[in-house]
Each structure stands twice: as structure tokens, then as C-alpha cells.
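Task: encode each sequence below as C-alpha cells.

Item 1
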Amino acid sequence: MLIFIFIFIVIFAPPTIAADPQTEINFETQILPILQNRCFTCHSAPKPKGDLQLDSLNGIETSQHGEIIIPGEPENSRLYQRITLPEGETGIMPPPDTSEPLTTQEIDLIRKWMTQGADYGNWKGNQRQHKPLSTDTSAHQPTVMPPITALTFSPDGKSVVACSQAGLHIYDPQTLKRQRTIPVQARNIHALAFSPDGNRLAVGGGNPATTGTIEIFSWPNGKSLRTLSEHRDSVTAIAWQNPASLASASLDRDIMLWDLRTGTPTQRLKGHSRGVSALCFLEDKQTLVTTGVDQNVRVWNLTTGELIRSLNNHTLPAHDLALRPKQTGLPLVASASDDRTVRLWQPTIGRMVKFARLKAAPLKVAWLNNGTTIVTACADGTIRLIDPDSVEVTQEIPALNGWAYALALHPTDASIIVGGPNAQIKRVITKPSPPSQ
């Protein structure tokens, strides 16, 4: 009887789509059908959701979102990271409201195909390629615009600088009316930072999986002064150490320190196992804190170039860091992660102090000027204010339709600018808390 049952299972069991590790995975017959059924509905030209096109090879390779598919490295590929997020996590692909999760067999096939080198064969995909959308304000202006990827106020608070795949634009902070556009070299830009003296603006970006650049402009005239281009993937974050030096983070997993007088890197810090998404200096300017896709918060001694410590409490990729201003005692840094937490760290002693769990993943984090309130921009388009002592959310402000990718706080008042999909920019006014005693 047992032998009969065994024979029945072998003969009549449904075939599995999982493949033996030694069997070469064919993209067009095994992987493409999965993408067609689960991904192309949202991520196809000419208007791919989130400005991410997956229905063409060119769209995948030139995505402004970075390393979508990395041959030989599924764990570092954004596509694989998204399809393997735990159920219920923000950002899981495909979204629960559009399709069922991928099966274990489908995920296994994609992983093995990437591990084997992600060979697309002869597939090129949709020939009607998605193109960066024009920002022309004529009657033919498209209804979908590239997302705002970074925002910053000028040091005097009289201008808002915003970047997207459509370029670098300057807005009036009160009316948010566009005042001018500054030409940039990079195809995609993701990071903005003013120098300590306010006379220069650093713009980070590049071409995914090809090169990362930092272009330095004079301010306010917007003249290009210098371009730094040692990174091997898009630059995602910039922080000035002093008027003659800045640090940059990249999806190539490296952090670089630059001498702006010569335009050359003085240090290259290695330690992150995946792309680096954020960095910030402590007040001493010799301690640097970084974080990224590998979930770790890392602390560096720039005098020696040594990695002091790695803090691994986050359970999903981290997006941003912010140092608490006007801090007495040990420095306090806030981090924002896909695990829906904002965590507070004392990096000089390697301690996580506490954390706040939010309803949606925080994509950006900052502090009000007096250091009494944490401000987050979240994946549901909501601005959330957090009390750093109780780690309770004190206010929720609906701001955008879709993910809030970018956040900037006015240097003197309590106004906030938030940016996101379809070139949305909105001004939000908060009531600042009294300074800590």
C-alpha cells in the first residue's frame, strides 16, 4: 500500500516550477511570465508607477531607483529585496491590493536566475520606452511628472531647492512657485546640501550601476564649479565636513571624503555590504554616522579612517539619518527605516536609546530647529511628529498622495516642505514645542 501511494505521488503530483541549482534558468520562459503577471500592470511604459519601468531591459538598467537587478547578487538587488519583504511590510512587491504575493517557487526562480548572472537572452522588452517627463508648463504638459527626490532650504530661508529626474529647480518658499531651473550634468539626482558658508550647493546623483557624481555649484547664481566622479553608482547622500571638505554616500557601498580644493577623494570608507543611503557628521566633524540597505548604522572615526562600531537593530533597509540640534550631553542621532521605526542612537557609545514604531515606513527624518521634535516623511504621504522623550507620535499631517520621498525644514521658522510623486511639493506649518530645559 505504501509503495502504491509513493508511486501515485510521483506520477500525479503537480510539477514544481522550482529549478535545480545546476539547471540554467531561461528568462523568457520562466522569469518573464512572472514579471508579466505580477509587475507589468503597474511598472510599464509610458507611465510606470513610481517612475520604475520593468517591462524593458533599458528601463531596468537605467532606473533612477538604483540597482534593480544585479547579476550574481540577488540579495543586493532592489527587486529581490522588495519581493522578499515580510507580509504586511510597507514596500512589499507586488502590493497586497494589486496581486497575491509571489510564491516561494517564483521567488526561488528569480533568485536562481539572478545568481546565475541575470541573462535576459534576446529579450529587450517594450520598445516604447519610458522617458523622463517634460516639466514644460504648456497646454501639452503631461499629467504624470517625475517624483521629487530631495529638497533643501537655502541657508537664508528665501529659496527652496528641489531635484528630480526632470532637473534642479528653485521655488519660492511661501508660494512654491518655480523661480528658475539650474542645468545639471547627472541624469538622475538624489541629494542636495549647502556648504557651511552658504556660498555653494552640492548636488549628488549619477547613472545607476555606472557612475556617481557630485556637482558643486556657486550660490545663488548656480554656476557649475566642479564635478566629482569617483563613485561607481549613484550618489545618494552628501554632508559637508567644512567649507573645503564633504562626504558622499553611494549605492556602490562606499563612503568618500573629498578635498574640494583639488577635487580628489582623501578617504574611501568600506564596510557596508549594500548601498549606503544616508550619512551625517557629529558636531566634532571627525565622527561620521552612516546607514543603508544593509540595515546597519555604522560609526566611523575620520581621524584614523576606522569603523568604530556597527549597530544592527534595524530589521529592514534604512533610509535616513539626522543629528539632534542643540543637544547637551551625548550626541543623539535619529534613523528612519523600512521596518516602520525611527530609532534614536547615541553613536559615541554604541547605544540604541529607544524607538518609535509608525503606521507607515518613514522615508526621511529631521529635527525641528530647537531639537524638541522629530519630523518624519512617510510612505503613506503623511508627516508625523514624534516626541523624542516619550517616542510617541504627537501629530499626523496628511501631506501628499503617495510616498513622501523628500523633506526640508526651514532654518528659522517652523515650516516644512515635503515632496513626492508626480512632482508634488507642499508646505506644512507646525507649532514648535518649547525648548528643552
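Item 2
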Amino acid sequence: MTAAEALVAATARLRAAGVDDPARDARVLLAHAARIEASRVTLIAPEDLPEDIEDRFDQLIALRSIRVPVSHLVGEREFYGRRFKVSGEVLDPRPETETLIEAALAEPFDHMLDLGVGSGCILVTLLAERPQATGLGVDISEAACLQASANAVLHRVERRARILQSNWFAGIEDQFDLVVANPPYISRTEYDGLAPEVRDHEPIQALTDGNDGLTAYRQIAAGVGAVMRSYGRLLLEIGPDQAADVCVLLENAGLVDISVLPDLDGRDRVVRARAG
């Protein structure tokens, strides 16, 4: 079987399984199986696949057909121009979160806190973009802390990034001029309707609070004032229908200059505020 024939068959198989973009996924997985860049798949299309590559590709397509995410199969996901190692222990980096990155980079910062650091994509990206800054990332999950630490090393910011296993603000004594978070904001009822790639393969504690989706924001609003420098910034990623509720929580907690930023699709995505 040539690479082109294998791609056609794999694409049909993924389409029948309900995968959203079967041709793209087939190309990425063939490149991974052949250990080449995805841009080179076209070059090998006329060639017969070696048996070992064909077997690896078939196994990858079988897993993708049962909706295992591509990122978990190849072990990484691109975010803000960098590749991050991921696993089923952390939330996959998502393009929408780049809205938060852009907002953070719009003003200078020296010392930042990432609440719920997960893969480390936010903390590591911001430190990589601001070489003079330092940061702390906290997460209740030990596995997430290990993943974030690995990504900090991968992108050479480990000397400026400290990772702490912590439940929100427990054990934090520093003061920060930037605090960011992408907390679990999906309600329990919304969780049941998520795509299988998300619902069945990403950590539930990083997706939902099992309640109304606002539990984390209540906890952040209650504790963030104690760790923010005067007029420091807070940036929170939110679900598209949560802006009003989160703004009220922050206003009641004494934060000021509260506003909402949309993502590229025009949906409310980030709430920003400052310490009073």
C-alpha cells in the first residue's frame, strides 16, 4: 500500500467514526508514524509504506477512531507558536486561550502567578515571551505539576518558573503584578454534552466543578487580593456565557477596572481586572 492509498483509507475510516477533520488528522498521524514532519507527507505519497510504518499508522488510526485526541497520540499540542508536551493528565492547550496570552502581553509584568497551571502552556509562554519575568505556577494535581515542569525545561524557562502543588492560594506568600487562570468553568450539565475527545480523555477536574461552573471564580475572587501588588492585573479565561457573573464576583471582591475581552470568534473569553 502506498502512503497515498493509506491516507485515503484512513480518512474514510475516521470520517465514518465521526471525526471532524479526518483528512487533517490522517496526515498528522501518518507523519507521526513515519517520524517525519507533516509537510513532508506529500513527498512520500507515491511510495510504498514500510510494514512497520503501516502497522504504526493503523494502530494510530484505530485509536483515533475511538476518539482518542490526536494530541494524546502524538504527545504534543501547538500553542502560541510553540509545541507543548501533553497527556491525559492535563487539559489540552486551546487556541481560545491565546486571547489571554495577548491580553497579558499588552502590558509589562515582572512576577506572575498562574493558578491551575496544567500543562504550563500559559506560564511557559508568558515567560518565554518576557525573558526578564519570573513566575509561579500552582496546581492541585501532582501530574500536572510534573507536566508543567517538563514544558518549562523544554522551552528553557525553568530557572524563572517555580511550580508548586497547591490548592489555589495555599502556601503562596509572594506578591504578583500579574495573576492569570484558566480554571474549570464548564457546568455539570454542559459537561455531559462535550465531544468524546474532551469528555472521555481530558481530566474532569480541569474541565468542570461538577456544579454551575463558577466555583473556581468564587475561590479566586475571595483570595486573589491577598497575592496581588497594588494595581496588579488579573486575567481569567471564562466560558462564553459567564462574563456577567464573573464580573460581579470580582466587583464584590473589591477589584476595579473590570472589562471583558472577546476571542477571535467574537465570544466573551477573558475577564480582566485590577487590584484596587
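Check on item 2: The chain has a mean pLDDT of 96. Strands lie at 76-79, 82-85, 111-115, 134-139, 161-165, 176-181, 228-237, 256-262, 268-274.
End of task.
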